[in-house]
Structure formats: structure tokens, C-alpha cells
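Q: Could you write out the predicted structure for this multi-component system? I'm mainly interested in how the pieces pack against one another.
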Amino acid sequence: MIISNRPCVLDPMKIKGPALTIVNENCNACQSCMNLGCPALTWGTDTFEGRHKVKIDASLCIGCTLCAQVCTVDCIKPTSPLTSTPVTQ
Amino acid sequence: MNAPTISSKKQEGAQLQPTAAAAKAREPMNVLIVGVGGQGVIMVSKALASLAQSKGFEVKQSEVHGMAKRGGSVFSHVRFGPQVWSPTIPKGEADILVALEWAEGLRWLSYLKPDTGIFICDTKRIVPPFACLNRRPGAPLRYSRETPAEVKAHVAEGYAIDATDMAEKLGNERAANVVLIGALSTALAFSADDWEKSLAEFVPKKTIAVNLEAFRLGRSWIEEARTLTPEAEAPAARTPVPAEMNYSVRLEITPDWCKSCDICVKLCPERCLRLNEERVVELAQPEKCTGCRLCELLCPDFAIRVHLDIVNVQGIAAAAAGSRA
């Protein structure tokens, strides 16, 4: 049973943003984002120092940017809705 | 709740011993549908239950709600027949097990009738986040390693369909559950037209066309799979467990640069750092340190450097190749 003390992040459709994606070269596999328990995050196929790099399932990501906020190397970027490539400044 | 059901069944069995076939016909059909929240488990069971009801059967259904938000484990028991007493299926009594996700299917395998049960499973793998939490170099994914061929050898009749992939090719990933309904429909005595009518009632209006297509695809897939001889399938290789990696971690701490800000202590995922009496960081539990470099990245004054030596370099290459395969 799950008892939460605030609304589920997946619940209000208001926070629906563009899906996020990993800039794979920069990911250092620290797994900080995995600690969030987001269902859209899983291990990818690449590794860094033996640890698995992370992958985002675009069909599950609602674009809440929580993972981007905890990323230590800032490698989680929103995708452009048209091209689904990372947006770079 | 189950106790009276069992006793009444026993009595019936005693009365109808000469006509064992008649007694068997009175037994309800047990269909167990399992999957991950959000895949449409309940929709599958609703379509089946309403179809069975429209055909004059007594239907009992027992399901779990509210798991969709977190990708939880969802099951739905559907029992129908001339007379159904209990709404849940006992272990080892399910005639058909429909699984919308690979590991969920394996989780419920013990509910299937060992000698006649039919196992229909999507090979879609939804790996939960807690299966990917290990930071040790070369850590394995904590997810089922069984191959479809291995599981088929355990059940009387097993089908492993890549339904999600099939539905994706049709243009809507979410129709995967209807592909599995198509597969399920071949194992039950209802006509395809009745199934399609029932489906049209339960899927969203806009997606009726793609769902009916998915239903027919699932049906034809099973018919094709039945004609194939089991020997024709080459047993797929099991994904190898990556070799355990030997590694040693050494933290190089420059005490003069540490300003006791506590960031590394608070954010170390393994909780292996602490501030000593001089309020300078030290590695309190070196055996717990995985060398994830978080402290090195987060220290504002660069007082921590992580030296990670991975001894088994071949293991890394093998693990990388294994995880890619």
C-alpha cells in the first residue's frame, strides 16, 4: 500500500512537459536520478566505470524535470517536441 | 471465503461421480490476467467478463485498483461458468494465465494448472527502478533472466508474444493488451465477432480501428505459432550474469580544503562518510563505498578525490558486451 503526503507527481496533468532525455556521453552513472524511483528511468546499455548509464523511457516521462534537477553532471535535457533531440543552449 | 467453496465442490463431486465429464463441465473457467499498472489489465478482464456474462454464464471477477500511477503489480481473476462460488482463483487452478509483462507472468506462474494450463505472455520487460539501484561496478540488473524457451518447458502450453512490438508497428503501443486478448480468444469458446463487439465497448472510441486490427493480429499470431513445431525454435541464449568486478576505492581527502559544509556526508548514497572531531570529512565505512564519485562531484572545494581501480578490466568489457546483447 502506498500512502503519500502530497499528490502523486504523475497525477496533475498540469506538469506535463516535453519528455527528457540523457546526453549519453556526459552521464557518469552516479545513479542519483535512480534514487527518485521514477518509473520512466531505467538502466541503459552503456556503462561508465562498470556502472550502468541511465535511460529515460520517453513514453512514460511526463517532463517534471526532477531528474534533471538532481543530475550532478547536468546531462538530462528536455527534448524538442518536434525532433526529440536534446535542446542545447 | 474459500472454505465453503471447496466443501461444496467436494459434495458435488461425490454426487456426480458416474458422470465425471458432466462434473467437469460444471467447473468454472479460470482466467488470470496479470501485468503492470497502466498496461490495461483491468480493461482485458472487463472485456472478457462482459462477454462471458452476455453469453449467459455466471461471472465473478476480482481485481486490484490504483497501482497504475507507480507501475505496480496488477492482477485480475475472472471466473465464469454455470455456477461460480468464489471470486478468486486458487493456486494451481488457473486454466489460462495472460501476462502483459514478462516478470509479472513469471510471478504468477504457480497459479496455472500444472498439466493443462495455457500461459500467454508478452515478452515486454518493464524493469522497475528498484532493480537498478546498485552502484557497484558490474552490478547486475535485478530482473528475471529466464528465457521464453526455458519457461515454455515448464508449462503445458506456453506462448511468448512480443505484443508490445506488434502493437507499436500498428501505430499504438497501448494496443498491446488487445493483441493479447486476440491470443486469449483462441483458447476460449467465444466467436471472434462476439469478442470484437465486446472490445468495441471497452476501448476508447477513437482507437477502435487500431484495437480491432491488434485483436486480429494476436489471433493470427497464435494460429501461426500452433502450426510451428516446437523443435523449430532455437533456444535463445540466457543473458549472462556479468562477471563480479574486483575494484578498490581510495578517497584522497585534503583536510585543509574541507570547510565542514557537510554536503558530501548528507548526499553520499551509501552513507559512508562522516565529519570527524576536527569537523573534517573522513571515510567512516570504506567497505560500503562503491566509488560512485558523487562526493567528488559535489564538494564545492574539491577536497575529495576518488581513486577507483577496477581490477577485472576484462569483466567490464564482458559486462558491457553482455548488457548490449
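A: Regarding packing and overall arrangement: The mean pLDDT of chain A is 81.
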